[in-house]
């Protein structure tokens, strides 16, 4: 039973059982924040749809929001306004699936920094037929809150006022800067703080720098990969997914002064990206407090193998607790009813809640026009003789349909039109109001401005959310009901009109080139929408550019097989000798190689290099990149007889054309050293690796990811040469720095521990090797999973 002063008291929740769940969350959070590593980090709130799981999470957010120091970083959520009399308790739609503040319009007040972080994922809305994943779609949230969280951590670590003041000045400028300037400003701020003072900042610098390269600029394309091969046993740098990088960055911000909270709505619908993210977040470290809260329907593991496997994984390591969220008792439901109809007699109230024992269903009924009129006419009461309960819809689907039927015609027609423009693989969107308006005007002869205005009203009504010029329906059931209201003929005409509108946008955005600027989130989303609508089969050049843009995004997130599938379909639509076509052919070959398909990678790299020499010339940077990539592929195939001479020639030409300090030149030197070592020529590999390391320290800094990789590679070469006197201290120093920069659970840090243990073993020092191997195995199982290749 809740008492005064207890976390659930005054929360606005009805029912002691729900308040007790809230109290359990608060108690667990306080233990984790205090450094308790014995308790599970993940709590699953399990209960039927509409029972109040999301409301409990929102109340937990409110509890933390009210406790934050002034000036507060995190804003109120909508239901807090409602409790203060600024909204209505009747209509549940505006609050459905709202578990945190929207990124759109988020106000970062001067001098306000978070005392906790709040990362949300809505699994029920991200369904993109394999072309989208939940974590990648949450990148805007990361970009919004990462730097302030890192600033809070810096303050918690006692970083000097001068460095913090410099960072604050940069942050103030970032609020007014454009995207590219903002990212560069983040890097300046990180550099100002210094990696030694704030562990994890090196990881953030690497991520933001690569973000600029991945995005590209309007005048160029990042389509030529310069493979930077690393080696040294288990420490070979593997491509990691966005989910792994996102998790590492969130963990890098976590600190007792700024604990990290991860909220997953509809976890029973998680995809592989969320599973990967959550497994990386399962670490129990006193100095990096993290807590995961998920909502899920009972039995969800029967229908989603990814969710089932994740629960099995978490349970195996005793890191999950399931908290059942019970149905509300009749008296609690009556309390809920009386918030809308306070003068309802007991008998009438109990009759209503007996028919609608689910809180969401009850709220939906109380929000129906006929019911609201009855309450008004009876001065705040809901008498049974004023409404026909048996005539009211009962199931969620029927209630949603009734709600849509009661919308103003402009809003109803607008959301139905929006649904008609969407592919089946993305049932909830997102969709752009301007595109929907143009499509509706052409297909349905409805003024585009009227449709766009209706979609704006739909956001106000809570049917959809809006972020960055894009709208998305709140949940899949709503989209399903809308789909049944779309006339099949209208749908065909709407989708054809949408394809024309999207092609027109892409044609204008690309100009005379064959790529889109991927720093424009709007252009990328347009490309994804068109790709889904053409069923991945391009009919026009603009369709091909859409596929290429999506493929490039998949390529950046290391989904090589999916990227290759799209590139295979798109490239034949492009002019054969155009530089952009050569670039995409290079990327297709790279995707083949990364996916392990060397039989297709090598011939395509060879043909692309021949054409690059003919079209661009032998000294063009793109031609040099093609030569490097072909050499690396020969090496991957074990053909060192062709790889080494090509690496040597490419390095000589890179020094001459690009200069000795260019990143690609340094990568080329590293790759040649790798080939020498693979051929057993340690005498030539070591001096080259020593030179690469010295130059990388000088050019990009001692804590840069590539520099740490070079140090690991050099240590591995020393060990291969039998020079343990130099290998072991370098392995030890690399492990120390990777732990500081990347964190103790980063895969590269685990690899460094494994390599150091191997060096100890080679030196006969089993007293140090065995405990380190044992600890590394334990942590690898926990962080990477028991079946990961490095764990095995």
Characterise this structure.
The protein has 34 helices and seven strands. It is mainly α. The strands form two sheets. It has a five-stranded parallel β-sheet with strand order 2-3-4-1-5, sandwiched between helices. Strands 6-7 form a two-stranded antiparallel sheet. Strand 6 (464-467) and strand 7 form a beta hairpin. Helix 7 (179-193) packs antiparallel against helix 8 (201-215) and helix 12 crosses helix 13.
SSE blueprint:
Blueprint: H1 16-33, E1 42-46, H2 53-67, H3 78-83, E2 117-122, H4 134-137, H5 139-156, H6 161-174, H7 179-193, H8 201-215, H9 242-253, E3 260-265, H10 272-280, E4 290-296, H11 305-316, E5 320-324, H12 330-340, H13 346-355, H14 359-366, H15 369-377, H16 396-405, H17 409-421, H18 433-443, H19 448-460, E6 464-467, E7 470-473, H20 476-485, H21 488-510, H22 521-533, H23 541-556, H24 560-570, H25 579-594, H26 598-616, H27 621-636, H28 640-657, H29 663-678, H30 682-700, H31 705-720, H32 724-742, H33 747-762, H34 766-784
Could you provide a short overview of the structure?
The protein contains 34 helices and 7 strands. By secondary structure, the chain is mostly helical.
């Amino acid at each position: 039973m809740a008492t005064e002063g207890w976390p659930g008291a005054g929360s606005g929740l009805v029912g002691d059982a729900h308040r007790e769940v809230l109290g359990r969350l608060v108690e667990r959070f306080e233990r984790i924040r205090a450094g308790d590593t014995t308790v599970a980090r993940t709590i699953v709130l399990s209960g039927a749809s509409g029972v109040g799981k999301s409301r409990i999470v929102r109340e937990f957010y409110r509890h933390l929001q009210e406790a934050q120091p002034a000036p507060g970083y995190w804003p109120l959520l909508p239901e807090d306004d409602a409790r203060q009399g600024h909204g209505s308790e009747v209509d549940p739609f505006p609050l459905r699936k709202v578990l945190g503040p929207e990124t759109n319009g988020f106000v970062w007040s001067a001098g306000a920094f978070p005392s906790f972080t709040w990362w949300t994922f809505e699994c029920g809305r991200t369904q993109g037929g394999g072309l989208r994943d939940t974590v990648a779609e949450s990148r805007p949230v990361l970009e919004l809150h990462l730097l302030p969280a890192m600033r809070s951590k810096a303050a918690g670590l006692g970083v000097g006022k001068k460095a913090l003041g410099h960072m604050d000045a940069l942050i103030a400028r970032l609020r007014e800067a454009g995207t590219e300037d903002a990212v560069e400003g983040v890097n300046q701020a990180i550099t100002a703080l210094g990696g030694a003072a704030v562990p994890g900042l090196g990881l953030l610098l690497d991520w933001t720098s690569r973000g600029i390269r991945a995005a590209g600029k309007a005048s160029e394309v990042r389509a030529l990969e310069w493979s930077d091969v690393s080696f040294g046993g288990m420490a070979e740098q593997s491509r990691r997914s966005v989910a792994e990088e996102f998790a590492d960055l969130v963990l890098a911000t976590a600190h007792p002064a700024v604990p990290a909270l991860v909220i997953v709505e509809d976890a029973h619908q998680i995809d592989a990206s969320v599973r990967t993210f959550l497994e990386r977040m399962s670490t129990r470290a006193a100095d990096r407090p993290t807590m995961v809260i998920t909502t899920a329907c009972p039995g969800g593991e029967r229908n989603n193998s990814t969710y089932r496997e994740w629960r099995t994984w978490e349970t195996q390591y005793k890191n999950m607790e399931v908290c059942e969220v019970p149905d509300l008792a009749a008296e609690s439901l009556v309390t809920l009813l009386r918030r809308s109809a306070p003068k309802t007699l007991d008998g009438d109230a109990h009759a209503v809640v007996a028919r609608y024992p689910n809180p969401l269903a009850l709220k939906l009924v109380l929000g129906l026009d006929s019911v609201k009129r009855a309450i008004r006419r009876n001065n705040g009461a809901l008498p049974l003789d004023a409404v026909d309960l048996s005539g009211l819809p009962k199931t969620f689907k029927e209630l949603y349909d009734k709600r849509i039927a009661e919308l103003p015609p402009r809003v109803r027609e607008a959301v139905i039109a929006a649904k008609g423009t969407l592919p089946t693989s993305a049932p909830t969107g997102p969709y752009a109001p301007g595109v929907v308006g143009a499509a509706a005007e052409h297909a349905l002869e409805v003024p585009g401005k009227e449709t766009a205005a209706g979609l704006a009203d739909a956001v106000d009504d809570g049917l959809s959310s809006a972020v960055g010029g894009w709208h998305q329906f709140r949940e899949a059931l709503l989209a399903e009901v809308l789909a049944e209201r779309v006339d099949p003929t209208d749908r065909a005409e709407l989708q054809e009109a949408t394809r024309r509108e999207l092609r027109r946008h892409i044609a204008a955005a690309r100009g005379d080139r064959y790529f889109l600027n991927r720093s424009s989130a709007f252009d990328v989303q347009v490309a994804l929408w068109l790709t889904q609508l053409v069923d991945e089969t391009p009919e026009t050049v603009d369709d091909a550019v859409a596929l290429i843009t999506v493929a490039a995004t998949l390529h950046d997130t290391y989904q090589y097989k999916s990227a290759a599938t799209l590139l295979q379909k798109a490239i034949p639509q492009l002019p054969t000798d155009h530089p952009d076509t050569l670039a995409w052919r290079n990327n297709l070959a790279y995707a083949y190689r990364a996916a392990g398909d060397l039989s297709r990678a090598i011939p395509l790299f060879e043909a692309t290099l021949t054409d690059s020499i003919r079209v661009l010339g032998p000294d063009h940077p793109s031609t040099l990149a093609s030569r490097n990539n072909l050499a690396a592929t020969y090496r991957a195939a074990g053909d060192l007889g062709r790889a080494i001479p090509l690496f040597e020639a490419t390095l000589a030409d890179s020094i001459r054309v690009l200069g000795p300090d260019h990143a690609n030149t340094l990568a080329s030197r590293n790759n040649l050293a790798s080939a020498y070592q693979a051929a057993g020529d340690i005498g030539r590999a070591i001096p080259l690796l020593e030179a690469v390391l010295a130059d990388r320290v000088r050019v990009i800094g001692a804590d840069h990811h590539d520099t740490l990789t070079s140090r690991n590679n050099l240590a591995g070469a020393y060990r291969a040469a039998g020079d343990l006197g130099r290998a072991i201290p370098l392995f030890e120093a690399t492990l120390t720095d990777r732990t500081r920069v990347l964190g103790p659970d980063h895969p590269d840090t685990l690899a460094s521990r494994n390599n150091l243990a191997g060096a100890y073993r080679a030196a006969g020092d089993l007293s140090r090797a065995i405990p380190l191997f044992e600890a590394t195995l334990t942590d690898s199982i926990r962080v990477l999973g028991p079946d990961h290749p490095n764990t095995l």
